Automatic annotation (TrEMBL):
Residue ranges of coiled coil: none
Any Pfam family hit: HxlR
Phylogenetic lineage: Bacteria, Bacillati, Bacillota, Clostridia, Eubacteriales
Superkingdom: Bacteria
Domain HTH hxlR-type: from-to ranges: 1-46
Name assigned to this protein: HTH hxlR-type domain-containing protein
Length: 46
């Protein structure tokens, strides 16, 4: 896991959901705040 990922989780841009199963399962998704910055990120790619 890269360092940059963790600040995104701590700032609640990315939501990490862990499932108690074997083998371990983890899902990642964007929070509402994360979704709100998608247009800005897309614009910066221009």
């Amino acid at each position: 896991m890269c360092f940059g990922y963790w600040w995104k989780v701590e700032d609640e841009i990315v939501v990490r959901k862990k499932y108690p199963q074997v083998p371990p399962k983890v899902e990642y998704s964007l929070s509402e705040e994360g979704l709100s910055i998608v247009p800005i990120v897309n614009f910066s790619k221009l």
